[in-house]
Amino acid sequence: MNNITTGTIEHLIELGKAREVGKLNSEERIELFDSIDSLDAIELAELYALIEVGKTGDMATFVYLVSKAKEIGFSLVEVIFEYNDLGSSLSKGYGVYCAKNI
Fold it and tell me: Are 94 and 9 within 8 A, CB to CB?
């Protein structure tokens, strides 16, 4: 993971977890979407891979998911935004990624 920043990941985790418990107002929902939409294709691919790692716990597929997600590109914005468990899955995936890359 070389492109998406730790600050961006942490921001998305915070907004995603707040949405999961119903604590996002309409402006914050827009901020969540805009935060995802502002990412480039590579950052979106990394974000997608982290979320999927969080769902499966399988870090071995990270590189594969990043490469496949790059092919999908910007259509990932809506896919990622629609995850109901965005904050939790991203948090878990980022934790797995950090643990494997220390």
Answer: yes
Which amino acid is it at 74?
Answer: F
Tens-digit pLDDT profile for residues 56-68: 888 887 777 777 7
CB 88 within 8 A of CB 17: yes
Query: CA-CA distance, 41 to 66, in Å (whole number)?
Result: 10
Question: How far from chain centre, in Å, is Cα 33?
Answer: 12
- Predicted TM-score (pTM) of the model is 0.88
Q: 28 CB contacts (<8 Å, ≥6 apart)?
A: 15, 18, 19
Residue carrying structure tokens 């480039």: 40
Q: Which one-letter DSSP state was computed for residue 43?
A: H
- Interior angle at CA 83, CA 102 and CA 96, nearest 5: 15
Q: Report residue 79 as tokens.
A: 């896919």
